[in-house]
Design a protein that fits this description.
This protein has seven helices and 17 strands. The chain starts with 7 loop residues before the first strand and ends with a strand. 24% of the residues lie in helices and 36% in strands. The strands form three sheets. Strands 1, 2, 3, 4, 5, 6 and 7 form a seven-stranded antiparallel β-sheet that branches.
Length: 311
Amino acid sequence: MFIKPKDYIVVDDKYFFAVVSEYREDDRVLTWLRYIKDEHGMHKLGTEQARELVSDSCPEFLFHSEYADSDLHGIRLGSISRVYRPDQTVVRLLNMTNPDNKQRDAIKILKLLLDAGIQEDYLGITGSLMLDTHNEKSDIDIIIYGRKLFYKVRQFIKDYLESGELRPLNDSLWKDAYQRRSCEISFEDYCLHEQRKFNKCVSGKSKADISMIPEACEQFQENGPFKKQGQEKIESIVTDDIYAYDFPARYFIEHQTISEVVSYTATYVGQVQKGEKIEAAGYVEQGSDGKKRLLVGTSREAAGEYIRVVD
């Protein structure tokens, strides 16, 4: 069973887990619980809510990943009752005859990308639209499969913003995005970094977020398993940003002991560019080859951890 990051897997038609890695460990898929379903419907969970629920009610999902040296929710392949795939959501949306307002906004941006020459097979939509739990305030979470294609899509988004086919986020939407992230940088810093990425826009009345999953041939070969060695804050020059929008985002740096800064947190994807000086706070990890990296985002909210450009 081939499962990618941004897919969702379901256990007992009740627990909905977001896949966080393609890496398999002890015959488990590495995930985090994001939704729970009961007689009243689907409920989205915050990081701590999910941690407490799994610990109290279903400890069989608790799993310490030796590879990542991190506590995750590990789901055995035999326990999976269903897999939700973002590319299948695109097919479903494009074939709808009576979409609601949120689905209509998603279809609009999908058709703009198709008109620009992006093939349907390389597009996905994850999150609430995929699980059909969306409401009027939900974002449209678009996935692009392939790094080269993703950079083309960013240029298309920039062009559509300039032409008016899509709109930029207003102050209210930027503040909402910032508050949802609960990140450690200031609102001003957040906007300065985000507005140059061209991976967010407004389609109809909905905010769209665009992220990327690299193709197999484009993936960086990590030097795990990793062992955490404590927290650290560093300043350094970025020497290579080719993997800036990958999952995880990765920035190679010029530093005496640390070779790269890595983040699984969406806030810090595409955060810096080659040649820029950054300040980063996170956890030092040592790989199997002895090289060290700084991991920023040991939780979804990444409390006390950040990446930002400094003068």
